[in-house]
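Table S7 (text form). Paired inputs.
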Amino acid sequence: MKNDPDFDEVVLAKDMGFANFEMMIFKYTQYETACACKGQLLRYVYQKYSDEKFVCYIDSDTQVFYSFDEVLSAFKTHSIVFTPHLNAPPEDTHTIWGENAEILYLRVGIINGGFIGLKRSTETEKFLTWWTVRLEHHAFFDAEMGLFTDQRWLTAALVLFDDIYILKHDGYNVAFWNIKQRYITINQEGYAANGVPFRFFHFSNIHYLRDHLPPDNPLVTPIVLEYLSLWEKYQEQYPTHYEWSYSFFDDGLKIEDNSREAFKNNPKLRTKTINPYLLSNKEIRKLNKKNKTRVRYR
């Protein structure tokens, strides 16, 4: 990846400026960690590349088709740009595999965290500081407690920060959750969604999408199959089958789910070490038993 001309820099999460990276991620699953790092990644880029006026974050399972002209237009009047899961009330309230879409968004948040647009400003800096701190401590996938990684915090941000623009453009963030409301066509300019220029497709849950391709929206099929073809093409260069290195203690033993749960639910336990990866499952069980102060996240 370091020799790939499409990348200006490759930075490891542990090198992005977290005060204590190991302590921060130990309580999280791999998926939660990826979401919890978004705020710090944006802060890292924002601070290091200080000559750049605009910064955009997009999830890694996204394919960009055209430039983000509407985002640049939004930056004329706002500093922060979000895209919602839905742009209008759906006639069919279910996703392509039957889940009630509107209830889903109440649970996971009305804003999708797969895209964040930022313009350099004081308000942006306040937002990044606020969001990063929340994700360091509370980016759990825990619907019972009203938490869904980074996304539920973005719903709160709509009230807490005044300089946010919600970009309701059907060409952005096309995905399984709104594909029933985004009819895809093609013309000389390329793909369009509901007649407006296509900007990016978010291939979240790509294999589920592949298995539930909407028959009444036929051009979704070649878009999905082309993406899967690219995925296969670059598997050797960017393999995805390796196990997450942070699934193991420093001695190589696998971290049990109960050990992560202990650090998630017991704040007193987190004061007993500066690096939980130096411990073991047995040591964590003992420490957790001795320090019974708990916060209920489930």
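Next pair, protein 2 of 2.
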Amino acid sequence: MVRGNTVPSKRTNRNSNRETNRVRDNAVNALGPIGQLLHQEHTDEHNDDLNTGAFPQVKKKPAKIHDARHNVYARIASTLTIIVLCALLGFGYVTQSQNSKKSYESLSEDELVRLLDETNRQVDSLEQQRTQLSEQLDSIRSSANKQQELERVAQENERTSGILSGRLAAHGKGIEITITQGGKHIPASVLFTLIEELRNAGAEVMQFGDVRVVASTYFLDTGDGVICDGVSMKAPYKILVIGEPESLTNAVQIAGGVGSQLRVRYDAGVRIRQNNNVQIDATRQPSTYSYAKTVE
């Protein structure tokens, strides 16, 4: 009768475990306190083992060291960004202040006087407008026939607004400017700068060629000239200006101004003639507005 491999009985396993425990106890007793400590550590690890099959294995969460470091780095980056932005802002402010200071320091005495005169002239103009409006308001309040006084003030303001908007012709003292082109093309931007300089100098009414200059006037370059408010023009350009002749002349002739740029950079000829009766006949039709309406 042939016998196969037999499975060890429970009694055999129990005897083997007893023998193992006896050997371990003898080793612990031989090592003394050190052996007892090692035995206790092994026992604790065995008791803490949760991988028994009856319960799901519980994994401890790793310490959030990475998140803490990330938060620290983010705060440092934010602080550095704020410091850099503040430094750039301060640098820009200082640079702008220095450039403004240098720009005034580089001006000559005549140019500084002109700037001061233009500023004073604008202030005086605003004061005159305020005084005129105050007088009109007082006259309306003190008038016995307020309706008649309102009509008179409305007609007076209509004439003024008609001249400013270009609807009415005008005449008065001022200057006549003639610009001849040399070997270089005069760009539209320079002519527009000339118009702006004349406005700053106190020009009240202007005419460029056959075009009445208003607030919406524009210039465009062409191959052999410019376009002013849709009208093609070629040199020589003639500009009529009504205003204080001396101030208007200084605005063009001042050193480093637009007149000097025309002569030096574009080889253009600039001739100015003062006239006590400049006649401006060019007018503009009232604009048609799609949305804006007058207040009744």
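The radius of gyration is 47 Å.
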